[in-house]
């Protein structure tokens, strides 16, 4: 079964740190945990019509949380920082936020 770009790119990450990277054409996304860098690059190119220079990935661990006497963990997830080529246009989604 072939995965679509929407299955790989789950959502953008909007934080102060990720917004600082937009000036350098670096965009941060939450991605599927089993997606590799090549799949992530193809998905971003397909969804946003841009050219990807490189992809850095980070596996974010689940943090311990407690509610009363019950303890558990938040889900682990994967983050991708996508750098675009200098001649590529920027992603419009992030334009109004930076």
Automatic annotation (TrEMBL):
Keyword NAD: no
Keyword vocabulary terms for this entry: Ribonucleoprotein, Ribosomal protein, RNA-binding, rRNA-binding
GO molecular function list: rRNA binding; structural constituent of ribosome
Any Gene Ontology biological process: translation
UniProt cross-references to Gene3D superfamilies, sorted A to Z: 3.30.70.330
GO CC annotation, single: ribonucleoprotein complex
One Pfam family from the record: Ribosomal_L23
Function: One of the early assembly proteins it binds 23S rRNA. One of the proteins that surrounds the polypeptide exit tunnel on the outside of the ribosome. Forms the main docking site for trigger factor binding to the ribosome.
PANTHER family: 60S RIBOSOMAL PROTEIN L23A (PTHR11620)
UniProt similarity note: Belongs to the universal ribosomal protein uL23 family.
Subunit-level organization: Part of the 50S ribosomal subunit. Contacts protein L29, and trigger factor when it is bound to the ribosome.
The protein, known as: Large ribosomal subunit protein uL23
Protein species of origin: [Clostridium] cellulosi
Highest classification ranks of the organism: Bacteria, Bacillati, Bacillota, Clostridia, Eubacteriales
């Amino acid at each position: 079964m072939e995965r679509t770009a929407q299955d790989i790119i789950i959502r953008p990450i909007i934080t102060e740190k990720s917004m600082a990277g937009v000036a350098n054409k670096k965009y941060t996304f939450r991605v599927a945990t089993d997606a590799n860098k090549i799949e992530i690059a193809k998905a971003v190119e397909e969804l946003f019509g841009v050219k990807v220079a490189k992809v850095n990935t980070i596996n974010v661990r689940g943090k311990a949380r407690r509610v009363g006497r019950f303890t558990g963990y938040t889900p682990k997830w994967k983050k991708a920082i996508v750098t675009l080529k200098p001649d590529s246009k920027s992603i419009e989604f992030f334009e109004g936020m930076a």
